[in-house]
């Protein structure tokens, strides 16, 4: 179904007139590594050869190291480890390799910038958990898991930069969270005239990232409405939108976990606790050299144990009735 969607039109309609140049001139946006930019340009050629893409990656030592580590970790049962970028890309497959390079490049661009409000280690740990969660949901939806993984990993990539450059705005949101709008995007639109999803999608488009990936960033705060959308309900956008409901440092969606718990009632295959356990297990299996100090199960446990709003209460608050329109084959 995703192949039949006009992602370029969805991206154009969603971003509208906002351009990166329209953002505050004092905002210092990150730059994508040169190797990733060149890789993205070459990857757009349907006739490109694997060895030509590998040659571009090999110009960046960090990118090469990350790709080899990822492949040799993901395929830890291999008798012979991948020793070259071309071997690693062949093992992964072209499309997953493209996704990995793009996601890694964007992370590198953002990690170079510090945030006074967001702990970077916790941020990327939570981003990885969301990415793994989106991949699990994609499996339930029977869609491409790699695009969902990359989209979820990148959905908030601009927040560390924004929370640092526009510190006072985001500090006010964080310090008075209970009295703020339900969604961080609503607060940003009211205070700034744009939001991090829109700004992130605009920058991702300028970086020539695939339109489907741009749409994942642009629409990641759709919540349950993504599952009721006639075009998007079985796409990477839906998987990413569900991952965005998981808890994070800013609690961007105030009722995110409540929505996920309610979704269990509507979708028999969606077993939240089992999905969370799978995320933590696969996080550990990745062997990426970073300890998972805040497993997803631990971060969610406090919400599981707290008194959450009932399904009727939430449905009453959900004016568009999106929860009642969720209809997925079991």
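Sequence proposed for the structure above (330 residues):
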């Amino acid at each position: 179904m995703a192949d039949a969607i006009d992602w370029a039109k969805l991206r154009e309609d969603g971003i509208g007139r906002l351009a990166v140049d329209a953002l505050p001139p004092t905002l210092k946006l990150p730059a994508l590594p040169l190797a990733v930019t060149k890789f993205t340009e070459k990857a757009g050629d349907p006739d490109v050869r694997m060895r030509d893409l590998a040659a571009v990656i090999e110009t960046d030592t960090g990118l090469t190291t990350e790709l080899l580590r990822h492949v040799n970790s993901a395929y830890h049962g291999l008798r012979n480890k991948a020793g070259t970028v071309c071997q690693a890309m062949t093992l992964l497959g072209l499309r997953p390799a493209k996704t990995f390079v793009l996601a890694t490049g964007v992370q590198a661009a953002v990690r170079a910038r510090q945030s006074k409000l967001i702990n970077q280690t916790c941020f990327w740990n939570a981003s990885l958990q969301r990415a793994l969660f989106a991949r699990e949901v994609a499996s339930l939806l029977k869609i491409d898991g790699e695009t969902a993984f990359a989209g979820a990993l990148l959905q908030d990539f601009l927040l560390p930069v924004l929370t640092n450059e526009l510190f006072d705005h985001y500090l006010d949101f964080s310090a008075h969270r209970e009295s703020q709008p339900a969604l961080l995007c609503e607060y940003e639109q009211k205070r700034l005239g744009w939001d991090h999803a829109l700004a992130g999608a605009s920058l991702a488009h300028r970086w020539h990232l695939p339109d489907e990936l741009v749409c994942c960033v642009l629409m990641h705060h759709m919540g349950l409405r993504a599952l009721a959308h006639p075009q998007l309900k079985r796409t990477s956008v839906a998987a990413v939108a569900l991952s965005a409901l998981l808890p994070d440092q800013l609690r961007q969606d105030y009722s995110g976990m409540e929505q996920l718990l309610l979704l269990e009632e509507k979708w028999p295959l969606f077993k939240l606790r089992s999905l969370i356990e799978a995320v933590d297990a696969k996080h550990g299996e990745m062997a990426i050299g970073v300890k998972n100090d805040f497993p997803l199960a631990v971060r969610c446990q406090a919400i599981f144990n707290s008194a959450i709003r009932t399904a009727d209460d939430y449905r009453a608050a959900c004016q568009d009735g999106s929860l009642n329109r969720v209809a997925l084959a079991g």
